[in-house]
Amino acid sequence: MLRRFLLLLPLFFFLLANTTAAADSVQVLVLPFEIHADQDLSYLKEEIPKTIREDLQAEGAVMVPPDSAQGVAASASDLDDVGTLRQTGLEAGADYIVWGSLTRIGDSISLDTRMIESVGTKPVYAVYEAGAGMESLRNIVNQSSQKLARHLFSRDIITQIRVTGNRRIEADAIERVIRSKTGDVLRAGEIAKDMKNIYKMGYFDDIRVESETDPDGKVIVFHVTEKPTIRRISLSGNQVFEDDKLRENLNISTGSILNIFTIKSNIDQLQSMYKDKNYHNVNITYAVHEQENNQADIEFVIEEGNKVKIDKITFLGNTTLTDKELLKLIKTSERGFFSWLTSSGELNREDLKQDAGRIMGHYQISGFIHAKVADPVVDFEDEAIHITFKIEEGERFKVGRIDIQGDLIIPKEKLMPALKIAKEPFFSRETVRQDIVSLTDVYANAGFAYASVSPLTKENRQTHLVDITYSIDKGEKVYFENIEIVGNTRTRDKVIRRELRIYEQQLYSGSRLKRSVRNLNRLDYFEDVKVDTPKGSADDRMRVKLEVTEKPTGSFTFGAGYSTVDKFFVTGSITQRNLFGRGQTLKLSGQIGGSSDLYNIGFTEPWLFDIPLSGTVNIYRQTREYDTYDRTSRGGTVGVSYPIWDYTRVSLAYRYDITDLDDIEDDANDNVKALEGENATSAVTIALTYDSRDKTFNTTNGQYHRLAYTYAGPGGDIGFNKVVAELGWYIPVFKNLVTFLHGESGTVRQTSGYILPDYEKFYLGGMNSIRGFDYQDINIPTVNSDGEDSEEGGLSYVQFNFELTYPIVKDLGLVGVLFYDTGNVYADESIDIGDLRQSAGYGIRWYSPIGPIRIEAGHILDPREDEDSSAKWEFSMGAAF
């Protein structure tokens, strides 16, 4: 830049040499102008000279005040009296005297301006300008002033502007940023501005300006030297990032203009990438390799250095909580022995910022209501990072008096036990917030949708107690004015409305509104359900707008899988869960496996007669190979169910089944041999089911209970009474750890005059009952009429399962499981809890993109003489693709 400035200095001084000297010595007196017009324009007598003075002063002349001209009263009364004017100028100390007149005839205006030197014999310099209309007067005066200035300072006129040296950049593009134009007075300041404008284009390394003289003025020539273009961009020294990854963050490309500032900006961007990966000692430079044809290669030279990790985390000011306790609260950690393998010790700015909030939050829920945690200080020291948290704990406060005031719709004595803050040893803002939500929900469920709960706290620094008063303003009761459903192009309105627990003109209820949304989500017809509750036509009215986004509910699946029971199998199905938008389900499915086949067609109407009475029709054909016989069943089921409480349904079903037993082995039990051939079953089942699980696979919360009674008899060959009860709880324990407690028991009795088949009795063993035992391996040993050792099912059974599940990779649905199973079957209706078989084991479950997968291993804890206690692995997989 200094070199360019020095190149410009000769021209600058050349242009200003005469004008500066002239401007410093030229004193100009402008006299009032005479006005010749057919209307009163006398005000112009002073306005025209005033404008000329301003124009000449802007050009560098020194103006002599008009009142210095004592020899002329108001104007030059005799324009030909040059001697008098010169004398007046001398007396006023002016080098030049300007005077003149304005003439207006009709719409025509002419301005006659004269100028003469006070000393000398040079003739009068006259300027004549004319125009039409008073609106042109300003321009006429300015043009006259410019001519006077040129005469005063002998300034040159720009007769031509040329651009040379450009090869890629069009001359027109350069000339567009040059403000000086042909015909302008040559001014050094304007030329300097033009140079800056050309530099700002960013395409040039050097700019020189020259002037050439011609008979009419000056020719200005801008000589430009273009920057080279980038031919190739290369990187060297990088190991952490691939070239392609680094190039993604460069905003320069081959063919673009080489701009040093842009290159430095790109270096900053690359350094940020490395520092985000904790390479804080990275050093990046660049080299420019000049090539032919005004091109250049750019090389980014990278010295990555070593990854810098956190060596020490220091806490200052903590007296109540130890460093060890605080370290457990934050995500940021010091590097450990295996930090080369894990991410421990790596600096994450976002985590670090949130860590200060985590520490602050923990203090505030522990009674330190005035605790302060400063932004952590990060110090980089060679190959290590030191982080310091500065803490001001302040005083610790316990909970003092608790009260509720304001609009009470429930007696205070009934509201107080629900407040969690009373059970806290120390004051906690988070618990207070939870209490506010709880109280607000109580009022919302009573119709006060806009109830406000404000906590008023009073600190006592002597006793270190905080008194809390929950002030309640219930507002008005609010009613649902109307419910609008939008977005459902296929699903009928009534299918959606029947799932709602809110109704138009009904009193507002927050819990029923939430339950309505949950019901719609459980339908699984919609990708998204949004709720908006704007105010209605009055303050006590609320509108509900439900916006649903539908998703496909029909599916075709074809799959394959493997299990230790069925071996390899293939399966396929066609399902429509929202048939014709009516919420009905139609499913055709089939499965062919190594030991079983199943074909099924089913139809479900969830709302028979427009009431929540679900009706189901199912027709099936199934074959299964058992150890001692083959069984083929074909039949159908007709059933209904009705909700009686939340998550609770009662169901009634009738099943008619014809079962054919064949390929019976010699060691089959006598019951199986007696049933060889076809046998009909006519059975009725009534059941009570409670299901509040959040999902059916990898469940994390909820319960599943079922009690079922089956009676078989009239209309068939088979007759029995069977009762089965099942209880299951999914309980979150700590963070993502879930406990599953499960128990089952059942009993079956033969009906007089009918047959109780072995396949209706109870067996245990396998992945879905007592793991570690083979399928149906827990049974009743017996000897058949042929003297062969055999086995048969029990008339009663009991089963308990205990599981601990924890997500290994939560986002992938990969879960680890530990389990303990126990249970047994019995030859009669009595159950002996003291005689239970036991197993324990472990496994993984994965809700994969191709379906749920289970891999589990069980060990028999009480092996008998012919049993192996080593791990028995079981695997099952179902897929749809």
UniProtKB/TrEMBL annotation:
Subcellular location: Membrane
Keyword set includes Repeat: yes
Protein name in UniProt: Outer membrane protein assembly factor BamA
Signal sequence bounds: 1-22
Database matches in InterPro entries: Bac_surfAg_D15, BamA/TamA_POTRA, D15-like, OM_assembly_BamA, POTRA
Taxonomy, superkingdom: Bacteria
The encoding gene: yaeT
Broad class of where this protein is predominantly found: membrane
UniProt-listed NCBIfam families: OM_YaeT (TIGR03303)
HAMAP family, sorted: OM_assembly_BamA
Gene Ontology terms describing biological process: membrane assembly
PANTHER family: SORTING AND ASSEMBLY MACHINERY SAMM50 PROTEIN FAMILY MEMBER, TRANSLOCATION AND ASSEMBLY MODULE SUBUNIT TAMA
A Pfam family assignment: Omp85
Regions annotated as coiled coil: none
Domain POTRA: 156-227, 228-305, 308-394, 478-551
GO cellular component: cell outer membrane
The entry's keywords: Cell outer membrane, Membrane, Repeat, Signal, Transmembrane, Transmembrane beta strand
Transmembrane segments: none
